[in-house]
Amino acid sequence: MNNSNLHPRDSKTVSLWQQQPGLDQQQDVVYSGTIYDVVIVGAGIAGLTTALLLQEQGKNCIILEGHNIGFGTTGATTAHLNTFLDTSYDQVAQDFGEDGARTLANATKESISLIQELVERYQIDCDFTFKDGIIYSETEAETKSLLSLLEASRKAGVEAVEIRDNGIPVPFEFAVVFNDQAEFHPMKYCMGLAAAFQKLGGTIVENAFVRKTTTSDALQVAHTDRFEIKGHNLVYTTHMPPGLTVFDVECFPYRSYVLGIKLTNGDYPKNMAYDMKDPYHYIRTHTIDGQPYLILGGEDHKTGHDDPEAAFQALEEYARKYWYVDSIDYRWSAQYYVPADGLPFIGKMPGFDDHTFVATGFSGNGMILGTITGKVLRDAILGKEDEYQKLFSPSRIKPVAGFKDFVAENADVAYHFVADRLGTEDMESFAELAPDSGEVVEYKGQKIAVYKDPQGQITALSPTCTHAGCIVKFNPVEKSWDCPCHGGRYDLKGQVITGPPVLNLKQINNPGE
Asked: β-pairing, 35-41 with 61-64?
C-alpha cells in the first residue's frame, strides 16, 4: 500500500477505502458575485447526494468542503446498507407509533433503491451488490430481544425470517435473515456522485473550511478563510453543524473500530452479519484489487472516553477466536453521533431562518440516512412535501422518547466540564512523557495539552475545546485531541479536524509563563 496515494481523511489510521484518487476536475470559485441557489457545507455522502439531486432539478449548487471529499465518516464507514437500523423498529414504534416505524422502514428501502438508481444512471463503478443481512443471538436474553426485533420489523413492512445458519463461524442460538440488503465501496460511490454533480454544472471547492455563516440582503453567506459564498439556501451536511446549537444536547459522539483482515483458509463471509451485543459486532467481506478482506467492526465507545488501543486489541482477540487470521492489514476508527430519541434530524435548522437546513444524528447508519437526506432536503428546498419530513424534523418535540439516554448522556457532559479541570496530572517536567504520546498536564499552575513527537520535540496547546469549553483528551491511536463532550477533534498542531468547533486550539509557546 502506497501511503502517498491515499485519499486523506480525518484520522491517522487508514481505512480500506482510501486507495482512491481525488477529483479529476479541480474547481475554484469564480469571484464574480455568483449567487447560488443552494450552498452545501460538507462533501460526505449526505452533502453529495443532496447537491446532485438538487442539481438534477435545475438548481445551481456549490459544495464547500473543509478538507476533501469523504474526509469524515464517509471515508471510514464499513458501508453496510440495511433496512434495519441501530434504533430498532420496536423502539421506534414505542416512541413514534407504528406509523413512525413504517415510515422509517420505507426510508431505508427507498435509500437502497436510490443508491442503486444513481449507480445505474451515472454508471458508477463502486462494487454495489445485494447481500443478505443476518442478525444472530447467543444467549436467551438476546434471543428474546431478537424475536421482538423480528416482530417489529415485520409490522413495519420489512421482511425477515428465521434462518438456520448465520454464515460465519460464531456459535449462535437464533438467527434472522433480512434479504435485499446491500454493500458498496463508499469512496468510489461518492467520487461517482461528485463527478456526476460536476457534469451537471455543479461546483465543488475543497479545502474551504466554513468558519461562520451570516445573512445579508435575505441571502445566506458562508465565510471561509479565503472567500465568501452567497446563496438563497444553506445546507449543513457536516456530520454535526458547527458552533453552539441545540444538537449539542441532542446528539452524542461515539467512535467505532474496524479491522480489515486476510484469512488463511479463504473462509470469507458471503453475507453480512451482526450480533446482539451492546455494542454489537458487524461483519462483512469486501474485495480490493482481487484481495478479499474480512471487515470486522465494533467495540464502540463515547469519543474521548475509554481506551482506543484496548478497543483494537479486543477486536483482534475476537477475530482470532473465530477465524483463521493470516494478517490484519487495516485498523481504523470512525465517529458517529447518536440522537437522543434514536432518529436523525433532517430538515430546517431550529433557531435559524427558513432557508437554513441541517442533517445530523445518523448513528451508525450514515450511508442509509445520508442518502435519504438528499431526498428529504431536495424536497424541502423545492417546497415539496414528503412522508419523511415530519418524522425527521429537527424541530420535533419528543419529551418521552430517548429521555433516559438524554439525561444520562448530558450528565456525562456536565461531569467532564468539572472533573477534567480538577483531574489533570501534575507533572514537574515533560521528561516523563513517552515519545509519540500526549497528555493534559498541570505545569506551573497552567493546564496544557502536551504532545511529544518521536524525536522528543514538544507541542503545547490550550486543552480547552473552542466549542463549549470542555477539556480535550489525547487519542493515542488517531494522534488527535478529542473532546469528550461534543466530539470535536483537533490535530497535533491544534487545527480543527472535525466540528462542531470552528476555531483551532490556542498554541502555547512558553508553557507556564
From this structure: parallel
Query: How many CB atoms within 10 Å of residue 280?
Result: 16
Cα angle: 14, vertex 190, 259; to 5 degrees: 25
What's the residue count for the chain?
Answer: 513
- Residue range 50-80, pLDDT digits in tens: 999 999 999 999 999 999 999 999 999 999 9
In this structure, the number of other CB atoms found within 10 A of the CB of residue 509 comes to: 6
**Is omega for the bond preceding 484 within 30 degrees of 0, making it cis?**
no
Half-sphere exposure in the Cβ direction for 270 (13 Å, CA) = 3
pTM (2 decimals)?
0.90
Tell me how far the alpha carbon of residue 76 is from its chain's centroid: 8
Q: The C-alpha cell of 136 is what?
A: 444472530
Which of 32, 1, 44 has its CA nearest to residue 19?
1
Q: Rounded to 5 degrees, what are φ and ψ at 109? A: -70, -40
The cell numbers describing 2, all together, are 502506497
- For residue 159, the number of C-alpha atoms closer than 13 Å in the C-beta half-sphere is 4
In contact, 347 and 377? CB cutoff 8 Å: yes
